[in-house]
Design goal:
2 copies of one chain form a homodimer. With 439 residues, chain A is α/β, with parallel strands linked by helices. Helices cover 45% and strands 14% of the residues of chain A. Chain A has 2 domains: 192 residues, nicotinate phosphoribosyltransferase (Alpha-Beta Barrel); 207 residues, Alpha-Beta Barrel (nicotinate phosphoribosyltransferase). The first copy, chain A, is built from 19 helices and 13 strands. In chain A, the strands form 3 sheets. A 6-stranded parallel beta sheet of chain A has the order 7-6-11-10-9-8. In chain A, strands 4-5-1-12-13 form a 5-stranded antiparallel beta sheet. Chain A has a two-stranded antiparallel sheet with strand order 2-3. In chain A, strand 6, helix 10 and strand 7 form a beta-alpha-beta unit. Chains A, B: It catalyses: 5-phospho-alpha-D-ribose 1-diphosphate + nicotinate + ATP + H2O = nicotinate beta-D-ribonucleotide + ADP + phosphate + diphosphate. Chains A, B: This is Nicotinate phosphoribosyltransferase. Chains A, B: One of its GO terms (biological process) is NAD+ biosynthetic process via the salvage pathway.
Chain lengths: 439, 439
């Protein structure tokens, strides 16, 4: 007998009682833990500030979400400690075929961790939510903070719906996802796709459902299927699915902010990966080259990076970037057909299909499907009140210095304007084609 | 907290264990109990034979449904007794505003009832399922027998589906029903509609869901809404919804079979209603005039029948029949705008809409929505294996004499061919326009 949850009923019941959104410290992305271990080893004492930013200003979160409820949810996360079973799973599990991925000193740190305090203010209809303190602690706020805001917004919109309206809403969302899964299955047995949707999920239960639907509909990759896993550790643990992920922008952003000279700044993204190279191999050696422009990053990269397993494409025109990377690998004497390219920027079925068909056989394409896997309720309620929106939680300062991210899409750039200009000069980033940030 | 059931999970679990389909003697249509009481009073010792007939021969039930499983389900019904709470509900409830609808001697009979034995054989890929014995006992097999065969067929088709495929199947069916409910709501606040879908439901849990969705989506009539109730007593009791229904073809069919002369035969349908008239008033005084042709029935009807509350249209062309009835009421000095006309033949939203718009204001139209409320899974599985089909369980003989039903649609006629001809002569039924029996 398989346990199950009737999502609509749970949502209906939310109307009467507090129901914690984040119930576990490992209800977070696997790569946060990998990065945290790296930070804990290499830069444990850096003081950072993370800030939650809603890029979709039209959604006035402070009008939708009650401040008291938000504080209760955030306080609940601060009350969490790593549970014994979670610790056992992290210590004992095999990730990417490797045992004891997490060092003992890091596990001890995690077992004793309480997330640091938060600061919350309302401004212009938005919440200003910031965290600061030691980097390895503060960084673990990112995912729960995003998940809480996303789900409180869902709950706010669902609050006035009747029980059967809710059931039908979820019925429609399930039908929609299943049709996407059927379309993905039609792409053939070589597809490789993962759930990257924790941060902007509609709700925890919904992500859990989506992951299981992917697992059943596409088959798990370790049994010959197409579904390679979920970024969410808690769901991976509970559903016995592979946890996956590698690294993200916060590493080069913080390393860059700590640079004293332009020369150091220019080397910062490579320094991150040199630290990573020491610790990991195989599927964990995936570059994320776009923090300060992919072209400049590849042009200036040391040769040992060309030997890495692959790269992740998270902004800009994915076709142009992948073509550039293919040419770059060839120029460094590497065989692109053996390289993993993970697409993870605003994907939905049409993009996945088109990228898969274009690059199959030329590289090993793989897909990290995020928001439109775990939060596609577009058009399902009046006023489209459940459409996903662009919420991020980023490192904004390190040891008092502001951070900057450029990416391959100027619409995704973050940081003070004058610093953005300076970084563009240092990294040789010229005009970029703006692309709509979908989610 | 409202209890709920995840239908897909229950279906999934059916795969491993026996799960009784009919779990209560009142999981039956309310009018069976009303008719049973009438029979118990007026014709308790008539010996009848009921037979289950699948009019959709292309669906080879004996190939789909395991005989052992079918016997287990039928045996389970024979193990049922009226539960204390059920008896209390029948004795104490108000039906159509009237208390103590059921007489004490009848309740005692019901409390002691065990359904009689059944006979089951396979022939030409179909099951021959027959019941015989005393009329008030045998007649109560009709609904559970139909519900069991319908649901075993659903289970057989669903058996090889995965858990998430099942969830999506139900998600699609829920979405479809909700869209129908939204279309019905758009017809305006005067609509009156009931669930008549017990006998050909997809499953008990699905009917239960459909009734609740109707209740939430259309509002209950006793609180100003459009949903006037369900024919299913168990669901009515559990969900605190009005139980509704009046009488059916078996009464005139058996009375007719017992007639010794053509004159008695001609009077049989009126004799049924004379017995009924004695016992009931108000919303229970609804004629079902089509057993041997509506026109002849109305033309020959005594004047007191014109004073009844209304009629039910269950075969033939509903527009022509209603127009005929309107003219008939006028000819008898009655005001048709005060008459209830209950449409119950193969309805779906389009027919409901068209009949409602045509007859609103001219009569009081009302709708008994059956199979396409509780069993619309058309097109939702490969090969359309869940499409509803035309299964009936009818009285085929009374005291050894075969029964006959003509109805207003020759495709629905039942009985030996030579007797059908004889009945047609006696009741003056000429050529009838055949209409496809949809469900």
């Amino acid at each position: 007998m398989i346990p199950t949850v009737d999502i609509a009923t749970r949502v209906y019941n939310h109307k009467w009682k507090i129901d914690p959104i984040v119930r576990s410290l490992i209800d977070t992305d696997f790569y946060k833990l990998l990065m945290c271990q790296s930070v804990f080893r290499n830069r444990p004492d850096v003081d950072v500030e993370f800030s939650l930013i809603n890029r979709t200003k039209a959604i006035r979160l402070a009008d939708l979400i009650d401040e008291g409820e938000l504080r209760e949810q955030l306080d609940h996360v601060r009350s969490l400690r790593l549970a014994r079973g979670e610790s056992t799973w992290l210590r004992g599990n095999t990730f990417y075929g490797k045992r004891q991925m997490f060092r003992s000193d890091f596990m001890t740190f995690l077992e004793n961790l309480q997330l640091p305090e938060y600061e919350l203010q309302k401004k212009d209809g938005q919440y200003e939510l910031t965290f600061h303190g030691r980097w390895p602690e503060v960084m673990l706020w990112e995912i729960p903070a995003l998940a809480i805001i996303m789900e409180l917004r869902s709950r706010a919109v669902l609050r006035d719906m009747g029980r059967f309206e809710l059931q039908v809403l979820y019925a429609r969302a399930m039908t929609r996802l299943w049709e996407k899964i059927e379309a993905l299955r039609a792409l053939g047995p070589d597809l490789r796709i993962a759930d990257f949707g924790t941060r902007r999920r509609h709700s925890f239960l919904w992500q859990d459902w989506c992951v299981q639907a992917m697992s059943e509909g596409l088959g798990n990759a370790d049994q010959g299927g197409r579904f390679i896993g979920t970024s969410n550790c808690l769901i991976a643990m509970r559903r016995d699915i592979e946890a996956i992920g590698t690294n993200a922008h916060e590493l080069p952003m913080v390393y860059a902010a700590l640079a004293d000279t332009d020369a150091e700044l220019r080397q910062a993204p490579y320094k991150v990966l040199a630290d990573w190279h020491e610790e990991h191999d195989g599927n964990l050696r995936i570059m994320l080259p776009d923090t300060y422009g992919t072209r400049g990053f590849l042009d200036g990269a040391p040769d040992w990076l060309a030997g890495w397993t692959g790269l992740r494409v998270d902004s800009g025109d994915p076709v142009a970037i992948t073509e550039y990377a293919i040419a770059w690998w060839k120029s460094r004497g590497e065989d692109p057909t053996q390289k993993l390219v993970i697409f993870s920027d605003g994907l939905d079925v049409a993009e996945i299909k088109s990228l898969f068909e274009r690059f199959r056989g030329r590289v090993k394409p793989s897909f990290g499907w995020g928001t439109l896997l775990t939060n596609d309720f577009r058009g399902l309620v009046p006023g489209d009140g459940l459409a996903p929106f662009s919420l991020v939680c980023k490192a904004v300062a390190a040891n008092g210095e502001p951070t900057v991210k450029l990416s391959d899409n100027p619409a995704k750039a973050t940081g003070p304007a004058e610093l953005i200009e300076h970084y563009k000069q240092v990294f040789g980033v010229g005009e970029q084609a703006a692309q709509t940030v979908r989610v």
